[in-house]
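Notebook entry, structure prediction.
Reason for the run: the old model in the group folder had no record of what sequence produced it. Starting over properly, with the input documented here first.
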Amino acid sequence: MVGGGTAGMPVATFAAERGARVLVVDAAADVGGTLHLSTGQLSAAGTKLQARKGVSDTTDAHYDDIMRISKNTADPMLVRLAVDNAADTFDWLQDNGFVPLDEHPVLGRAHEPYSEQRYYWGVDGGLTILETLRGPFQAQVDAGRVTVKLSTKVTALVTDEQGAVVGVETSGPSGPETFQGQNVVLACGGYSSNGAIFQKLNGFPQYYDGAYPHAQGAGIRLGQSVGGVLRGQDYYLCGFGAVLDSDTIPAGLTARPLHHPEMRQPWEIHVNVRGERFVQEDGDSVDVREHALLAQPDLRRWVIYDDAIAKASPPQFSGGNKETEMAYFGAHPMFNKASTLDDLAKAAGIDAGGLAASVAGYNDATKNGTADPMGRQHRPLPIEQGPFYAIRVQGTSISSTVGLAVDEFLHVIDQNNKPVANLYAAGEVLGSGQTMGDSFCGGMMATPALTFGRLLGQSLLNWEDRAAQAAE
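New structure, fully documented this time:
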């Protein structure tokens, strides 16, 4: 097992429960992978929790929602495999102590809503899932059926003369070692902390330094080394953005704007570097906003407003307050303030003519009560009273879009769609593009990772166990 995170822990747990002897190799100092920092969003239809709360839901409805939200860009085979088995995974988590928030399941938050309440997460996000996984996993470690080697990297896959994967080479505290096994599962996450691979596969820099540090693309490198191919290259998508602390790539996080109208109606306008508005700021589709930002130069937008709005509007940032927000102006590179729009444009690096035209068009519609050029409805105040303000917001993503191609049994496949013998993959190494397509679908990273890990653990045994069974 290469990786002991969201997918790797279930693989090891379920395989060991069936009598297999499992080696888990992880580059980190602890198991858990991205669960240490993820929001841990889950989605599943037909769960026991839904039934107890009177929610009638089906896997077909879940499947249809994913294909609708992704505009049929998600992989139908993998989506079907994930949603058809998600309820069993979620029920197993609950049976082992997972406690979702009281009001859950819900339709959704942060991403496009589902048509039914099938969205769940715990009070501590990914850590809630991790602590649930630890008990069954540790029980198998204590029983001697799972061996864990931490702070250890898999440097190569070992193959036989026919090209079948028969083991791994590792490097860690014990020095270089080689281990043999009938099955090797790549569950070592994505590449979102490797800037070079991120840029190559996604076509954009990794602007935000917020990904799991060990997401270095090892699984992709290992899979490709034995003929595996990639999918999802056309499906990169960033979130609607965050305020970063510098122009360094990658940069740290300063604040997360509240851009969801259901959480905070917009008082400001959003413009690109040309000073143009590019999206209806109060539109109810987060997917539309995200794709609109994807089309803007450098995935950037600026939030523009004036002094009257600054004084009357609610705080713009998650968990923030107006006093903290205003203190950034003059002290932070992404916050600019000026007495005129022309000076603001120069300070923020926006085209002055474009910004003036955008503000004029917005003000005319707002003051005259006519239709807004972008279709916006919530227009409490025009932008006309200096000083004027601009906050630069950067589109970001900390997940991996591109991943290894697999078949319906989660075998890694080659360019001829043939399985690479004995090699499997699950989790973020598959890439979000396969389970979500070109949109963010709630719960369709963590849940497939857990589910595919469980399915593999229920179907695989190592070579020694198989040989012993055959001799009986």
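Summary: The CA atoms of residues 289 and 298 lie 15 Å apart.
The old model has been moved to the deprecated folder.
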